[in-house]
Protein: Ribosomal protein uS12 methylthiotransferase RimO
Amino acid sequence: MADMSQNPPQLRPDLAPRAQLRDAAPRPDQPTIGMVSLGCPKALVDSERILTRLRAEGYAISPDYTGADAVIVNTCGFLDSAKAESLDAIGEALTENGRVIVTGCLGAEPDYITGAHPRVLAVTGPHQYEQVLDAVHRAVPPKPDPFIDLLPESSVSLTPRHYSYLKISEGCNHKCKFCIIPDMRGRLVSRPAHAVVREAEKLVAAGVRELLVISQDTSAYGVDIKHGEDRGHRAHITDLARDLGSLGAWVRLHYVYPYPHVRDLIPLMADGLVLPYLDIPFQHAHPDTLKRMARPAHGERTLDHIAAWRDICPEIALRSTFIVGYPGETEEEFQTLLDWLDEAQLDRVGCFQYENVAGARANALPDHVPDAVKAERWERFMHKAQAISEAKLAAKVGQVMQVIVDDVDSDGIATCRTKADAPEIDGNLFIDEGAGGLTPGDIVTVEVDEAGEYDLWGKLHAPS
Structure:
């Protein structure tokens, strides 16, 4: 039986899957740029766009420091621990390569970076593609081959061929006190719907079987452009989900804020147009904690929403993230969160212990929770979440369901995901017999025959 390998309790739910680069070997004398991509899937998409532009200009792409003429480090600034990881990655790139260009969320604080690493060649902020390209040109001038580089090429992908992130907007209009993302990435800026659909069409035509829709606030998509319609596509999340669902790939929605109009998405899930999966960062359940967070949601109202969604689409899988140990969180407030989790019965759960982040308004709140208490509450929270996950998965034994194949190892064991599982942040379904003929991206039908705390095992299902 394969070991459970996904969704361990310590996994940070803000991280993208590990970047995978599939690029041809450089030709002689071709300038080569390495890329280190940190942080969330939105940052991974930024890295893909930068590399796509560079490859079109004649650069070869390296998946690491080896053989690169310079290295781009796309940083994360979500938490102080993420900032420390970014500084470490910059330091490693300087040691291994010596010529480093920094971009991404932490790039919004250039003095912070240059104070630690004064040798970096340039620092740019998030989604500043042109500035990154300018810095690369200065460091490593391009040498395009007009017979090769001017030919249209597909985009550089940092994910496996069979799934891709689809970013529909930048920025966020919320003012959550624990978050500095709006300060780094700005207010909501939605992409035109026709541009999103066109990108999705190209991805599906290139063999992508699953589209993972991402943004900072997916359910607010189109608010800034008044849900305008252009070329037959309206910039509203319900319309966009319907358009994407018509392309024939799995469509998975991430970072959906629980606005009332989210209920309009659920019939699309019941009808099979988009996956019955919602990734909603509830953050907490006690009204006083949510108020201190500057989150307008309310735990009891959210439970009503969840019940209504399940009435419409009983197979819907709900994933969320929470913060424990937020400043002022009392034992009573934390217990309310545990009781809420018991009632909500969420399928997939991630959890952060609260951290101060430089520039966040939550830092100034009174009654910060001691680290030992935060850790103890996190353990209790994850213990309950794990028990819920184990019970819900046990109920799936005997069910027949579709899964998408992510990998088949040398022993013929297939690592797959159900419709309830996003890559790397959720669980897996393993097929350990008869899977040798499968390839990544195959969508097959299995019968579940065993369940663990986070993962399932099954066998290929033969139609009767």
